[in-house]
Design brief:
- There is one protein chain.
- 36% of the residues lie in helices and 33% in strands.
- By secondary structure, it is of the alpha+beta class.
- The protein has a single domain, classed as Heat Shock Protein 90 (2-Layer Sandwich), CATH 3.30.565.
- It has a five-stranded antiparallel β-sheet, with helices on one face.
- β4 and β5 form a beta hairpin.
- The chain starts with a strand and ends in a 5-residue tail after the last strand.
- The model has no long low-confidence stretch (mean pLDDT 86).
Amino acid sequence: MDEQRAQDVFCVPLRDESDVATARFRTRSLCEQLGFDSRVLEALALAVSEVARNVIVHARGGELRVGTLRKGELSGVVVVAKDNGPGIANLADAMTDGFSTGTGLGLGLPSARRLVDELELHSVVGEGTTVTLRQWRRARY
């Protein structure tokens, strides 16, 4: 297969809860334009909400970039949430249901992982965190 090629479509600064809603709405709209099945686009929109909210709560802000993605015959959407916050000391714990460093339920990252085709998590303590989501378009049923 061809190497993955992404093209940025939009960027949303993440500062407060209204930016989470904007990121979710714009991601959903892009997926509708690209012909994603409604169940798949809603799952991606929910995953976007989870990672965007984490950026605001744990890092006090960052950005979310969304783009289209091609890999051979496949097309999809890639979402990259990036912050310069405190970072995550233990990535395995962060991906475990119920683990939280704050007051939340500890379901954000594990849920996002279940909602999309691919999730990558990269973090350096003291430097920040990057979460990459990939969702491939499937034929409608």
